[in-house]
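Re: the multi-chain job from yesterday

Posting the exact lines I submitted so nobody has to dig through the queue logs.
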Amino acid sequence: MNLSGGEQVVMPRKKRHMDCDAAMDALDRKILTMIQEALPLVSEPYEALGRQIGISGEEVLIRLKRLKETGVIRRIGAVFDGRALGQASTLCAAKVPSGLVKLFVDRCCACRGVTHCYRRNHEYNIWFTVTAPSRDEIDAFLDNLSEETGVKDIRDMPAVRRFKIKATFPL
Amino acid sequence: MIRKPSFDERERQLLKMLQGDLPLAAKPFRWVAEKLAVDESTVLSLIGRLIATGIIRRFGALVHHGKAGYVNNALVLWDVAPADMEQAAAALTSHPGITHCYERRPPFEGTFSLFTMIHGRYDDDQSLEKRVERLSEEAGIGNYKILESLEEYKKTSMEYF
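And the result, structure tokens for all chains:
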């Protein structure tokens, strides 16, 4: 364990996030780890999950309801594969002057196909993903966004190969 | 060419419900089945088929990673020659902190073509920068760029149906 130097940076973060993290016990973590991978496809999935870790389905549900209330769980359902659905997508980076960031981000995020949008530490400061039924629709959206905001410099970088996509985490 | 799968009306209704939020009830699939006026077993076998065909990538809980302790994320861009792409990707993706890895065209700044997302916990004993530095050594990639997220404006699941 390397505690030299990094310690001072880590500590304030730890304090800031202690509440949410401390609210989960080992059993919560176990349940979350399992259920983010897969909800069992059986009539009573929570009962099935509980059996694996030695508690009742009711207790699993009580814990999950609390995790939902505290916002740790966003939703329970399907994550679809856009590519398998024949959808086009891309990642864009835009060079947006500070005075235009609000306008640009508002216009950008109003689009249903924009699912992620971040400000990052680069002269290309706004990064966003676009998904649409076809490449033509993405082009039309980007042209329109450029026109409406006056931001001309948008880099459009579609994926040509996918090596990994797994947004689940050990908890 | 891209082939779009087609769904009948009943499948479409089911897909629409699955992209939403299932209730935390003892029998969630029965709840779905009742809404669609079909058998629970029909719902279960349809979901199973959608998973098997890769249309559903994951079926379960979506976790708010920040609230679960994963407070740092960064986009890391790697300068990798086409011939080394697969090997570099394999080295990077073997780490659980790397959640997404794509080759993109055109390369950013004419140089960076391998894109990864990396996530870190508040209680990691190493800074993100340090971890990326170690990754670069393991993957043998000298030139990389860390783009931290300074502000999140939108993060959602795509509504396809």
